[in-house]
Every structure is written in C-alpha cells, then in structure tokens.
Amino acid sequence: MNDKRVLGKIQNPQERIKNFSEVELGYTKEEALKEANRCLQCINPRCVKGCPVGIMIPEFIKYIKEDNIEKAYEVISKSSSLPAICGRVCPQEKQCEGMCIKGLKGDAISIGALERYVADIALKNNFTSVKNIKKNNKKVAIVGSGPSGLTCAGELAKKGYNVVIYEILQKPGGVLTYGIPEFRLPKSIVEKEIESLKKLGVEIKCDVLVGNSITIDDLSKEYDAVFLGTGAGLPKFMGIPGEEANGVFSANEILTRINLMKAYKEEAKTPIKKAKKAYVIGGGNVAMDAVRSLKRLGVDAHIMYRRSEEELPARKMEVYHAKEEGIIFDLLTNPKEILMDEFNNVIGMNVINMILTEPGEDGRRGVIEDEKSIHKVDCDMVVMALGTSPNHSALKDTEINLSEKGLIVVEESKTSHDKVYAGGDAVTGAATVILAMEAGKKAAHQIMEELK
Amino acid sequence: MYKVLYNKKISVNSYEMAIIAPHIIEKFIPGQFIIIMAYEDSERIPLTVYDYDKEKGIIYLIYQVVGASTLELSNIKKEIFSISGPLGNGNEICLNPNNYREKRICYVAGGVGIAPVYPQIKYLNELGLKVDVIYGAKNVGLLLIRQKIEKVVNKIRYATDDGSFGTKGFVTDILEKYINDYDIVVAIGPVIMMKNIVDVTNKHNVKSIVSMNPLMVDGSGMCGACRCEVDGKVKFACIHGPEFPGDKVNFDLALKRMNIYKEEEKEKLDLINKKLGGKKDE
C-alpha cells in the first residue's frame, strides 16, 4: 500500500504568477486510477460523514477504479449539484479528507481531486444526471444565484418544480463569478454548471434587485415558495484612522473588478488600481484570493494577519499555493493606522505586533497587542478582507425576523415569513461554498416537503 | 439585451437615451438610480433616471460624456447589454410627500444634475407639491429640458457662468439671495456645487439633501467602492443613499475619492477611442 497521495500536475509558480489560468491542472486518467486505487472502500466510510452534502464517496471512487465515469458522476450528482466547483473549492482537509482513515498514518485520499476529475469529464461529455423530468405546477422563486441559490434551484428543478432565479449582477453565479478567481475556479466551469441547471429548466433573471425591482412580498404572492440566498453582505472595514485614503479597498471590490469585470485583461474597460506594494488584511480564502490576484498583476503582495499561521482560516492548499507564488505572510501583525499623502493616497501603515493568548470558550486563540511594537511599513495599497456584515436591502418592505447579529433567522430552513425560506451566508454569516450548498439543498427538500 | 429606442445628442456633451426596461420602472421611486453596461465587456456605469413611461416600460436617461465608458455608451444605437435596478433609495420628499406639504421646497440642479431632479419635481407636481428650482450651467447651450421643467415647477431661476441666460453667476449666488424663502433645499449636481450649496444652507440653518454619485461597481452593497463619510460614519451610497443629509456629508473627502482611478481612466479612454476607430458619433 502506498501512503502518499498522487499529486496532480500544477502550473509552475514562476509561470503562473504571470497569468490567471488555473493553478491545478487536474488528474490524468492514470493519476486518477492510481489515486482511486488507494481508497480502502470502507464499509463504514468516515469520509461521507465529513461531507456536508453526504456524497457517497467510496461508491463514486469505486466507479473511477472501473473507469465508469458516467456512473461515478451519477453517484456524485445524487448529492451535489455543482461537483466541478466543489472539487475545486471545498476545504476538503476539514471535511471528507479530514475524516479519511488513511489520513491517520499517511495521506488521506485526494477526494476533492477525484471529484473534480469526474465532474470535468462529465462537463466535457455533457453527461446528464437527470433524465425525463416530469414538470409539476409548483413555482419557486430564488433570490440570488450564488452557491445556495443554484443548489436549491437544481434540487427543485430535478424534481419538476418551476424555478426562477433573480440576480442583481449581469451574470449569475454570485461569489463563484465575482469572488473566486479564474486561477482557482475557471469561469468556464461555472458557466457550464449554470448551463446544466438551465437545461433542467431553471430560468435566471439578471439585472433584478429584489427589494427594489420586486419585493419579497410580491414574490410570495406570485410563487408557491421563495428562497433567499442573498449572500454575506457588506464588506467590513476596520474603523482605524486613514481608512478613507485612496488606495484602501475591500477585497470584494478588488475581486469583483478582476473576476466579474475582467480588469486583469489589458483590453478590459473596467480599471483596477495599479500598485507597487499591497497589504491584504485578513487570513481567509477571500484574503488569499485577493493577494494572489494582486501578485499576478505584478504587485509586491503581502498578507497581514493578526494571528499565527496555525490559525489562518483559509483552505490549506490556498496558503500553500500562495507561499509557492512568493506571497509574503506578515503574521501576528495588525494595522493601527493608514498613512496618506496630501492627495489622500496611501503611503504606508503603522502596524503593531500581536501576541497570542490561550484559547477562549470557542476554542480559538485570541490576540493582544504588544504595545511597544508599533512600527511603520511602506505600501501604496491596503485591501481589507475582514468578513462581512449583513445587507438587508432584499428584505425591503417585508417583515422577516433577524437575529441580534442581523442574520436571517430560520427554523428548518424556514424564515418567520410563511412562504419564505433562506440559507447560506445570509443565515450563517460568511462561510464556505459547500456550506451554502448544503443549506440550499436542505431548503429545497423542506420546500418540497411543505408543498407536497 | 435591452432594446434602445434612441440615443441622441442633446447638447455639446450630453445624450438622451430611451430603453425598454420594464423591470426598472415598475417600482421606481424618483431618487433611485440604475447601472448600465453598453456591451458584455463594458464597465458598469451608475446613471440617474430622467423620465419614464410606466405603461410602455420605457426609461429615459440623460448622461454626459465624461470618460471612456460614457463615450462608448454614446455610440450605442440598437441595444444595450445590461441595465440593473432600480438601485438605492427614493428621495425622502417623494417617499413621504405628506410630511412636506406645508414646507417651502427648493431644488438646485447643476448641469446634467437636472436629469435626476426632473422626475422628482414631476412626481411631486402630480401629487400637488409645487416646488421652486434653481438651475445652473456654464452657458445657455448646456441648460437642458427647459420647457419640460417649466411645466412642473412653481418658480424657476436660471444661472449661467457666462450670463448667456438668466443670472450671470452660480446657483449659489441665487440661493444666497432667496434662502430665507425655503425650509428645505435638495441639491443635485457636481460634488463641488453640492458642497457650496450646503455651505449656504448650513449658514442659514436650512435643511438640505444631496445626491452622491461616487465610483461604484456592483451597486448592491457588495464591494464598498462607493463609500462616503456621512456624520462621521462610513456609508455606502448604493444601498444607504444615494441621497444623504447635506450637512452630514464629508464633501472634501468625496472630492478626493473621485480621483482614485484618474490615471487608469486615461488609459481606458485611449483604449475606447482606439476601439471606436477615432470616429466619434455623428
């Protein structure tokens, strides 16, 4: 038995920091077979318990071993609506792979890479997971076309429901389209996954701001049920002096300009600010996406994070790739003040070193400032990747209960409004693609249960 | 894709465009705005709505060619790729007209700022609230839609920088003279004009409302590009505005933040000019 996982090919770091093409190139057939053969096919598979949507992992891997990719895809599709996306962006080390028994002594099975292998072949060959859908006469409106909305739509459409998705941007996909960069999740993959939803009969209306163009009350009159997958909300800023300087951006703005508006291309019509040296503040996936995007634009790109490497919330693979690409991690450091010149342009920051404290009740280590350690760093761009606070513009003129933190309160996916369900970041606060998908799936099944 | 009925030049640097977009109009409240994209690869440009026809689902825009993206938009003939909205909140007076029936209201518009002012005063006129207007521009050729406004206002006063029409001077000069006639002033136009108007209203303790038009990308609260400082706090013009109490807005900061992409925008203008093959409209 080989306890080392098969590593798929990746773009050389020196090369890839000059382009936006995908970093991981995916398994070849030989590599996939070899990796699949490492799977022990446990009778009582722990990996499935680690998967938020409960994909029957050993079963699809068994079909890879038999080189029956169509069957493998069928197995995955039973549980997941967007496998080509999950294979790429799920934090597998905290989920399926984190539970894998092989991981105790060696490398866990590379489940994410195998899932992606199957899904990419399926997309290329137009495998359809569902045939002969019998349409019913029930109508469901979905607000937001991010991972929770798309998953909810897919689940319902497969069962014959008439689904219409409302999206404010010019293109569907939510964070998959505006947030996660091309080099991690090619937009062609997102488009194909959305196309396959459309083939199931899902209609997508772009350019519509629910709350303003049409209210949730209107939707609940026109449809049998409404699902809110409106996402995480407003980007947070630190509230420190100088944050109003020109050159301070939210990570969402940087990413939206690059991913949705294609500002990384020279011929793009939407600009992105040129910078020599940038600090991205934060340690999550959004921070990694922003810092690696800036690196590709030729910026001397740093991460500044107040805790240590161990606490970085980002997917391990992203941190690894970021380091390979020459991203500098300034850990245990936090900005105190942003410095600007007379034209309001960023010229640097005063930052302070942080000291880790013992874990609190939530098990997470806190930090305190080392007061004597304030020092200056030079930079001409600061990017805030600090999470989000709720945005309720979609709820205008509609009464829906919110938590103290301003998140939508649900019970069994249902809000306080009789016909309105919700899931994803709007309910949990900023989390991951897969957790949003899980919530979308759950809500779809709850909707079906209640509309029976 | 949305059908464009016409897109015509109405002054040296302004265009009027009519688009079929019922989703914008159905719930539109004057004061709200839209984001438009000429082509699939165009920039998202926030623009104000100048007029609309609810029955036919037609929306009318007036915009000024100020850079690459508006130049590109001015060359559109048949259809546009995207128009999203309505975005932001309606004007305070239009939302609560009954609170203002007894108030003496003055609108101040500068240049194409008349475009967002017109639907407000037209809407209020339909509800029986006649307001006064002070409207200024560089010269008589840049004073737009005069006949239309005159039909829906109580009294209108004009100012031109060169004296070619109305009072020679600025809208602030006129407001300064008549400020005591008003309880509330709504100012829409260039940031520097709004700042100067608010200096006048503040001096006389008159309530003011201004409409901010900062840089914007998504227009739904997701990116934070449009943040302004209002009452010492960070506000997003797209979802908290675009209108704010004039005396609370940090205009100096707003003026500085307009320059964020100055360098980059020059390059984009060259790019669009090259794409248009040097040929301008007409």
Compile the SSE list and pairings:
The complex is a heterodimer of chains A (452) and B (282).
Chain A: E1 9-10, H1 13-16, E2 24-26, H2 29-36, H3 46-50, H4 57-65, H5 69-79, H6 83-89, H7 96-99, H8 111-124, E3 139-143, H9 147-158, E4 162-166, H10 175-178, H11 187-199, E5 203-205, H12 216-222, E6 225-228, E7 234-235, E8 248-250, H13 251-260, E9 277-281, H14 285-296, E10 300-304, H15 316-324, E11 328-330, E12 333-340, E13 346-359, E14 365-369, E15 375-378, E16 381-384, E17 388-389, E18 420-422, H16 425-428, H17 433-451
Parallel strand pairs in A: 3-4, 3-6, 4-5, 6-18, 8-16, 9-10, 9-16, 10-11
Antiparallel strand pairs in A: 1-2, 7-17, 12-13, 13-14, 13-15
Chain B: E1 2-9, E2 14-20, H1 22-25, E3 33-37, E4 45-53, E5 58-64, H2 68-74, E6 79-80, E7 82-87, H3 92-95, E8 105-110, H4 114-126, E9 132-137, H5 146-152, E10 156-160, E11 167-168, H6 171-178, E12 184-188, H7 191-203, E13 207-211, E14 227-230, E15 233-236, H8 237-240, E16 243-245, H9 251-257, H10 262-275
Parallel strand pairs in B: 8-9, 8-12, 9-10, 10-11, 12-13
Antiparallel strand pairs in B: 1-2, 1-6, 2-5, 3-4, 3-7, 4-5, 13-16, 14-15
Helix pairs in contact in B: 2-10, 6-7, 7-9
Overall geometry of chain B: globular
CATH structural class of the largest domain in chain B:
Alpha Beta
Strand order of the largest sheet of chain A: 5-4-3-6-18
| Number of beta-strand segments of chain B | 16
Q: Could you say what the CATH architecture of the largest domain in chain B is? A: 3-Layer(aba) Sandwich
Please give the most extensive interface between any two protein chains, plus how many residues each contributes.
A-B, 43 and 49 residues
Helix residue percentage of chain B: 25-40%
Which secondary-structure class do the elements of chain A indicate?
A: alpha/beta
Low-pLDDT regions of chain A? none
The name CATH uses for the topology of the largest domain in chain A is FAD/NAD(P)-binding domain
CATH superfamily of the largest domain in chain A: FAD/NAD(P)-binding domain
CATH topology of the largest domain in chain B, anyone?
Answer: Rossmann fold
Q: Residue-averaged pLDDT of chain B, rounded?
A: 93
Question: What is the end-to-end distance of chain A?
Answer: 50 Å
The largest sheet of chain A, given as strand count, sense and whether it forms a barrel, is:
5 strands, parallel
* Strand arrangement across the biggest beta sheet of chain B: 6-1-2-5-4-3-7
CATH superfamily of the largest domain in chain B: Nucleotide-binding domain of ferredoxin-NADP reductase (FNR) module
Q: In total, how many domains does the architecture of chain A comprise?
A: 3
The amount of beta strand of chain A, in percent, is 15-25%
Helix content of chain A: 25-40%
The percent range for strand residues of chain B is 25-35%
